[in-house]
Amino acid sequence: MKRSDKIAVIEQLTKEINSYSHYYLADISNLNAEVTTELRRLCNKREVKLVVVKNTILRKALENSEKNSEELYDVLVNNTSILFSNSGNVPAKLIKEFSKINKKPVLKAAYVEQCIYVGANQLEALINVKSKEELLGGIIATLQSPMKNVVSALQSGGQTISGVLKTLEARKA
Fold first, then answer.
1. What are residue 115's DSSP bridge partners?
2. Which residues contact 102 (CB under 8 A, 6 or more apart)?
3. What residues are paired with 49 via a beta bridge?
4. Chain center to CA of 22
5. Which of 4, 34, 79, 91 is the Cys-Cys partner for 83 at CB 3.0 to 4.6 Å?
6. How many Å apart are CA 119 and CA 75, to the nearest integer?
7. DSSP per-residue letters across the chain
8. Predicted pLDDT at 43
9. pLDDT given at position 130
10. Burial level of 38, CB count in 10 A (0-12/13-18/19+)?
11. Residue 77 burial by CB count (10 A; 0-12/13-18/19+): exposed, middle or buried?
């Protein structure tokens, strides 16, 4: 590959890293073409972009990116693929599901919610990571619950008072 081509690939990869909120580094080596195609299809269905890159090019792109990814440099050995996603836990679920059958991909590291996770042992933690939208939804639901109870109590109390007043009015007549 010519130097100018490498620079163009690094620039494109840097743009991808900056544009996605989350990315995972995984090892998909030793997968045959058929299984790799199956993995790519699954990634496309779940809106995950899978890119196979050379470690040196990926390191340069990480160095050039706006994100602090220095902790990831140590995992850039052997074969590395990068999975880009705008959802923090979707690639983790995909890796777990796909590796049950094929033993690959193996998680090397991940950049999720501005935190870095290193090692395959972090996969379960990544599966349980909630996105900012999910957390906000949970907080809103928690805040709404007491309000709904109060409104419901007031409405039922209002009906009770209305019933008592109607009864008293009927007695006067």
1. 112
2. 31, 35, 39
3. 84
4. 6
5. 91
6. 9
7. --HHHHHHHHHHHHHHHHH-SEEEEEE-TT--HHHHHHHHHHHHHTT-EEEEE-HHHHHHHHHHSSS--GGGGGG--S-EEEEEESSSSHHHHHHHHHHHHHS--EEEEEEETTEEEESGGGHHHHHTPPPHHHHHHHHHHHHHHHHHHHHHHHHHHHHHHHHHHHHHHHHH-
8. 94
9. 76
10. middle
11. exposed
CA torsion sign for 153, 156, 162, 167 is: negative
- The pLDDT score that the predictor gives to residue 156 is 66
Q: Phi/psi of residue 108, each to 5°?
A: -100, -50
Residue ranges, the chain, pLDDT below 70: 150-151, 153-161, 164, 173
pLDDT, tens digit (0-9, with 9 covering 90-100), for 84-95? 999 889 999 999
pLDDT at position 119, please? Answer: 92
Considering the domain 3-129, what is its CATH architecture?
A: 2-Layer Sandwich (3.30)
- Cα maximum dimension of the chain: 101
Give the Cα separation of 92 and 110 in Å (integer): 9
What CA–CA distance (Å, rounded) separates 57 from 12?
Answer: 11
What tokens were used for 33? Answer: 């073409």
- Between CA 163 and CA 1 the distance in angstroms is 85
